[in-house]
């Protein structure tokens, strides 16, 4: 009775909308895990870089036939592609393991069961992100890509356990691209959407023709795209640099920290054109730990700044400032903050009028205390190094004009 109750709760926990996703560490040696709410014709995938001997000890049974997890995890369309071939599920699904529970608890692989409709959709594709691979659409139909980041063994904690790099991302200017945490139709976090193009969160509808390489430290996420979906290159790993120099005047990028990472300070140096007007802004989502504060500030042309608080209870925010951003700093002063994602952007606008006269001998270090500031919550002082007392997480915008609006 105890085992049956456990299995029922196990299935209900992740079997929403006919889909299931579990870490392999979930399955224990004393239990036969029978998954409920599994649709006939669904696909089962296993994504894992765990020891092959341990994977062989995990048995999956469907349609009266047994398969081991290693064989399923190695089902790829070709030896050069990470695209996976699903195992069709018929007449139920159960999992057993002969690994002892100590070994099972250390496994990092994941088991994923789709719905039957997803399995029948050729535009719904599942990938392991391993070797460098470019995805190029061949038609004009909408696409969904579910991407599993295989576990990377980080000895010195210098990079996250699960991570990939998405680069060379291009899309039709009339299309819509959204990146989400987890799997389609099932929320693994309170937050799902973390990167969008165009960005219309604050009613501006900005489309980015240039997107910086994105470092995404998530076990699994998915990309949806209309009008054929995006073209992009993916590879396992993370971008180690904490100073980002953008590659175009108008651009968008991403800073993301997952729960298992040590938070670091980030600086984004925008490739701005001072002859033009422009706007800069962000979309921010988080699941921060209780008691961690988020602050953001804006620098004016002569050094004034303004700040506002985003406390740990705020899971979403979006804002825009009139004027080019010169720099944005994301400073973590807590080593383990939880999850946050920060999509930043900078866009060139109209050509600025030529000033009638240029002041002579402009001060190189203006006194910031005499510059007027506008404060929505409270002003903050920028720091570029971690504080000895871990208390706050700050976001600082540097732009060549004063703060105009915040939504």
Automatic annotation (TrEMBL):
Q: Which InterPro entries match?
A: Glycoprotein
A single GO BP term for this record reads: innate immune response
Q: Which domain of life is it from?
A: Eukaryota
Q: Can you list the GO cellular component terms from the UniProt entry?
A: membrane raft
Q: Does the keyword Glycoprotein apply?
A: no
Q: Is Signal given among the entry's keywords?
A: yes
UniProt feature coiled coil, ranges: none
Sorted keywords for this record are: Signal
Q: Which Pfam families match?
A: Glycoprotein (PF03409)
Where would one find the signal peptide in this protein? 1-18
Q: Write down what this protein is called.
A: CUB-like domain-containing protein
Q: What is the species of this protein?
A: Caenorhabditis auriculariae
Organism ancestry: Eukaryota, Metazoa, Ecdysozoa, Nematoda, Chromadorea
């Amino acid at each position: 009775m105890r085992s049956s109750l456990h299995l029922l709760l196990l299935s209900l926990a992740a079997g929403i909308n006919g889909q299931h996703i579990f870490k392999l560490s979930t399955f224990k040696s004393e239990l036969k895990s029978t998954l409920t709410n599994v649709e006939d014709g669904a696909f089962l995938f296993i994504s894992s870089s765990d020891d092959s001997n341990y994977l062989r000890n995990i048995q999956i049974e469907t349609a009266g036939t047994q398969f081991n997890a290693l064989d399923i995890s190695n089902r790829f369309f070709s030896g050069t592609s990470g695209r996976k071939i699903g195992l069709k599920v018929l007449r139920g699904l159960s999992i057993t393991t002969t690994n002892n529970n100590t070994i099972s608890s250390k496994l990092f692989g994941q088991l994923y069961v789709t719905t039957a409709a997803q399995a029948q959709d050729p535009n719904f594709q599942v990938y392991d992100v391993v070797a460098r691979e470019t995805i190029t659409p061949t038609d004009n139909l909408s696409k969904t890509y579910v991407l599993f980041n295989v576990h990377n063994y980080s000895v010195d904690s210098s990079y996250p356990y699960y991570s990939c790099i998405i680069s060379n991302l291009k899309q039709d200017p009339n299309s819509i691209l959204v990146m989400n945490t987890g799997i389609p139709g099932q929320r693994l976090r309170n937050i799902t959407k973390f990167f969008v193009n165009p960005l219309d969160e604050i009613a501006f509808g900005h489309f980015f023709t240039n997107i910086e390489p994105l470092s995404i430290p998530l076990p699994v996420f998915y990309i949806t795209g209309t009008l054929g979906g995006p073209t992009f290159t993916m590879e396992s790993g993370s971008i180690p640099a904490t100073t980002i120099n953008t590659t175009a005047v108008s651009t968008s990028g991403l800073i993301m920290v997952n729960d298992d990472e040590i938070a670091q300070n980030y600086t984004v140096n925008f490739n701005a054109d001072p002859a033009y007007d422009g706007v800069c802004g962000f979309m921010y989502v988080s699941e921060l730990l209780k008691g961690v504060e988020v602050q953001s500030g804006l620098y004016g042309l002569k050094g004034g700044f303004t700040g506002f608080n985003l406390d740990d209870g705020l899971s979403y925010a979006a804002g825009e400032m009139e004027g080019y951003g010169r720099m944005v700093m994301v400073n973590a002063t807590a080593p383990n903050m939880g999850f946050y994602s920060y999509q930043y952007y900078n866009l060139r606008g109209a050509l600025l009028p030529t000033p009638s006269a240029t002041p002579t001998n402009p001060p190189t270090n203006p006194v910031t205390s005499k510059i007027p500031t506008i404060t929505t919550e409270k002003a903050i002082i920028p720091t570029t190094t971690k504080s000895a007392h871990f208390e706050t997480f700050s976001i600082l915008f540097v732009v060549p004009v004063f703060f105009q609006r915040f939504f």
